[in-house]
Design a protein that fits this description.
It contains six helices and 24 strands. By secondary structure, the protein is of the alpha+beta class. The strands form four sheets. Strands 1-5-6-8-9-10-11-12-13-18-19-20-21-22-23-24 form a 16-stranded antiparallel beta barrel. Strands 4-16-17 form a three-stranded antiparallel β-sheet, with no helix packed on it. The chain is elongated and about 120 Å long.
Length: 561
């Protein structure tokens, strides 16, 4: 606003000195005074500042007139002062540009304007109401058999005898739980109907061109990392709203992105390995580059995620680390492919016999550190009791028992993922997905040496095939998509804690198909129907001939904003 006092002074002085140009100069004076009033009304200037500015301008104008009078020419000499039009135009443009610049910065001149920082905040959220019906197969092995089968002699299918030294084993510890009187309480036969709701609300703040931060809240609880569903029927009580994401992104270069905190899934994958609701705690980095006009875009992602911190003298830390190489390929304007190969490695996740137990004294400070925790495990992975042979509470099918289940296998899955998007009939797309997994750390001999468990079944492989037709996402009225998925998830191919929680009610050692259909009822409002049929690949009890199966129907009404 440096030009404004000068313009005022010029307008006042000129109006006093140049009678032949009075009309144009009076217009300039009027415009300048009106501009001051606008600045006061919009809060740019205070009234005191405006009055002081006018007084200062009048003082300068008076000085200018007095100076001109002192330099009055001799009698008979006539001078006609003249301010060129180009000078007047320059003053006017300078004032205009300064006012407009300040108006843009403070956003007071634009109709319905909002502060600049608001444009850097992006909100997202969704609410979903679901009816779910789980129908168990008629020939499912009853829960009582799970408890009795926990003493099976590995590799023989024959129940173990007391003092045999063999660990107790299972692939579904939850189904084998017993009451205080030793009665099995796990449900594997009784059908269940549930109404469930999910709500998520998140915000992403762009702090600069290279730094952003995100926070998301969701329903659910801290004991279930692969689901944000809340089952209705809490006696009208309120629900828990937990911190689902909290992270910072930093992109120092266009080709590099760094993330840390509780971050969204950084991997290119299907739900065969990672559930759609799973978020990761740790750090990840993705580097990507495009060439051939963006037709070919290779990328690499690496990440490290702590699963459990170390407690000196009590337990070791556990972590997950991984690296993925991938390629985005645009074969044509309406044909796109994406390929990826990933190697994941779980550190210290496997179980082992725990010798921190002394006869007559009991458990030591580190006893139980090799367990695969109840709140973490799902079902499907082969488990064995890590209890010391001196611990008399290891037998699960009795009151007062305390079996500490551990993972029989180590986990180092190699994952190959591929997708194709064919948009020749846009907006209808044909989308194909495939994924294959092999657990490179699965070794039956190593398992026997470490645990004493001789496995005759179980699998270290998994695969998924999916065909989808329709719109990639449901956004508007009339949008639709349908899909068919088949998968076979071997018992020890992936960690059962993190895979899809809907198919077969979660976990591994399941095979079957899923049919789904979704339709847009309104803008960002969809109605979805999904049906899954799943059966075990190998015996869930490790006894020959026993099995588990469940069919699940889900009806969803969802809105996104």
């Amino acid at each position: 606003m440096k030009s404004l006092p000068l313009a005022i002074a010029l307008a006042l002085s000129c109006s006093a000195a140049f009678a032949d140009e009075r009309q144009s100069l009076e217009a300039l004076q009027h415009t300048t005074m009106s501009l001051i009033e606008v600045l006061v009304e919009n809060g740019v200037l205070k009234r005191e500042q405006a009055d002081a500015m006018v007084q200062e301008a009048e003082r300068r104008a008076a000085q200018a007139v007095a100076h001109k009078a002192a330099e009055a020419p001799a009698a008979g000499t006539v001078r006609i002062p003249y301010v060129p039009q180009i000078v007047r135009d320059q003053i006017r443009d300078e004032i205009k540009q300064e006012v407009l610049a300040e108006a843009r910065e403070d956003r007071w001149a634009a109709p319905n304007a909002i502060p600049e920082w608001v444009s850097r905040i992006q909100w997202e959220g969704d609410v979903r109401l679901r009816f779910q019906s789980d129908r168990y197969a008629d020939d499912n092995t009853p829960a009582a058999n799970y408890a009795n089968a926990l003493g099976v002699m590995p590799g023989t299918g024959v129940p173990a005898v007391s003092g045999s030294g063999a660990p107790y084993v299972t692939r579904n510890a939850g189904a084998a739980e017993v009451s205080d009187n030793g009665t099995a309480i796990g449900n594997v036969t009784d059908d269940v109907n549930r109404w469930r709701v999910r709500a998520r609300l998140g915000v992403l703040a762009r702090l600069s061109n290279s730094v952003s931060a995100g926070v998301r809240m969701a329903t659910g609880n801290t004991g279930d990392r692969v689901s944000t569903n809340q089952t209705l029927g809490q006696n009208l009580n309120k629900y828990t709203f937990v911190l689902d994401r909290a992270y910072i992104n930093y992109a120092p270069f266009e080709w590099l992105k760094l993330s840390g905190g509780r971050i969204p899934n950084p991997w290119f994958a299907t739900d065969l390995v990672w559930d759609d609701d799973l978020n990761f705690e740790g750090v990840a980095a993705t580097a990507s580059y495009s060439f051939k006009g963006g037709r070919i875009s290779p990328f690499v992602t690496a990440g490290w995620f702590p699963l459990r911190p170390e407690t000196p003298g009590q337990r070791e830390d556990r972590s997950l680390q991984g690296v993925q190489l991938g390629l985005n390929l645009r074969a044509a304007e309406d044909v796109r492919f994406r390929l990826g190969v990933a190697q994941y490695d779980y550190q210290n996740i496997e179980g082992r016999v725990d010798n921190a137990y002394t006869l007559g004294v009991g458990a030591g400070a580190s006893y139980g550190q090799y367990g695969y925790e109840t709140g973490l495990r799902a079902k499907g992975n082969t488990l064995f009791t890590t209890n010391s042979s001196l611990d008399g509470t290891a037998f699960p099918a009795q009151s007062g028992s305390n079996p500490i289940w551990g993972l029989a296998a180590k986990f180092k899955p190699l994952v190959l993922t591929a997708t194709a998007d064919l948009a020749s009939f846009d907006p209808v797309h044909v989308m194909v997905s495939a994924e294959y997994v092999k657990n490179l750390a699965f070794d039956r001999d190593e398992i026997f040496r470490r645990t004493g468990l001789r496995m005759s079944d179980g699998s270290d492989r998994a695969y998924l095939l999916r065909l989808a037709v329709g719109m990639p996402s449901i956004k508007e009225v009339g949008d639709w998509n349908a899909s068919l998925t088949y998968r076979n998830v071997g018992s020890d191919s992936v960690l059962d804690a993190f895979t899809d929680s809907d198919f077969g009610l979660g976990g591994t050692n399941m095979k079957g198909y899923t049919l789904s259909f979704a339709y847009g009822l309104d803008n960002r409002t969809s109605l979805g129907l999904k049906y899954s049929s799943a059966r075990t690949v190998d015996s869930p009890t490790l006894l020959r001939g026993e099995q588990f199966g469940v069919d699940t129907l889900q009806l969803d009404l969802a809105v996104k904003f």
